[in-house]
């Protein structure tokens, strides 16, 4: 397993990060109902991940009802005593309680959210605390100051953002630089062969200002695993069989061309399509660690192989071409004139 510094911080994390969205069996009515794993399986997956060299686990308060994923992790820390082996990342922002302050990123909400997460996780600190999405109703300076207070109190060690527009991310960095506050060292965002919009603004900004990118949904909800074929129904029990509206959005000529290229490269390098899709991201600028989920040990073992897969330049070029991003204005205009944007 390779380890990389997270952005411009001194924190070293594995190039693969285990995502905790599937930890615990969510009750009916939850968006994770019937797509998660029971607590014992989740704990077995976490133990095997650590044994394989993964030291980075990401979750969120909103994963499962009443912080289910965090509660499963807290029970695991208590049972197996491996807390100090883990770089623990969690997130806040979305609704967890009723009332006007039960959601969002106001100072009062941030303080309550971190205390609730610490209680569920049965730990005294969060290693990487991330705002799950920007809050346009709260001044960014209020958010930055509240997060800085948590760092100074020792409850949080590093800060990150997720699902931020580039302008808002830069506003936060500017405020922190101007006010002498602890700032974001990571951006967690959707990034895959299917979804490359991040490359217009976020990737160049993260490279220049020292934020490590943590891609989520690197397999595009399982679309890039090789399970799905044009004109064929989704496999029974697969995630996109449950979320058919999402599968319909993947039904484009570009996406089927991506799958074709992915299959070709997988055969060339003797790997599974999912492993190739993860390895493609690991060669992208500013990417520190790729977040993947594993509902069982078999999925974990398959994805672990991506950390050892070195894609040749020709394979990268084939995948880049098949998944090429339509730049739009002004990026295409700038590229036309200067050869880059």
How would you characterize this protein structure?
The structure is a single chain. The chain contains 13 helices and 10 strands. The protein has 341 residues and is α/β, with parallel strands linked by helices. It has a single domain, classed as NADP-dependent oxidoreductase domain (TIM Barrel, Alpha-Beta Barrel). Strands 9-8-7-6-5-4-3-10 form an 8-stranded parallel β-sheet. Helix 4 (140-152) crosses helix 5 (166-179) and helix 9 packs antiparallel against helix 12 (313-322). The chain is globular and about 50 Å long. The protein starts with a strand and ends with a helix. The model has no long low-confidence stretch (mean pLDDT 94).
Brief summary:
This protein is α/β, with parallel strands linked by helices. It has 13 helices and ten strands.
List keywords for this structure.
341 residues; alpha/beta; TIM Barrel; eight-stranded parallel sheet; two-stranded antiparallel ribbon; 10 strands; 41% helix
What string, H for helix and E for strand, traces the elements in order?
A: EEEHEHEHEHEHEHEHHHHEHHH
> How many alpha or pi helices?
13
Q: How many structural domains?
A: 1
Low-confidence stretches: none
**What's the total number of strands?**
10
CATH topology annotation: TIM Barrel
Instruction: Give the integer mean of the pLDDT values.
Output: 94
Strand order in space, largest sheet: 9-8-7-6-5-4-3-10
Distance between the termini: 33 Å
Q: Which percent range describes the beta-strand content?
A: 5-15%
| Major sheet characteristics | 8 strands, parallel
Which overall shape is indicated by the principal axes computed on the Cα atoms? Answer: globular
Please tell me how large the radius of gyration is: 20 Å
Proportion in helices: 40-55%
CATH superfamily descriptor: NADP-dependent oxidoreductase domain
What's the CATH C level? Alpha Beta
Which CATH architecture is right? Alpha-Beta Barrel
Provide the structure class.
alpha/beta
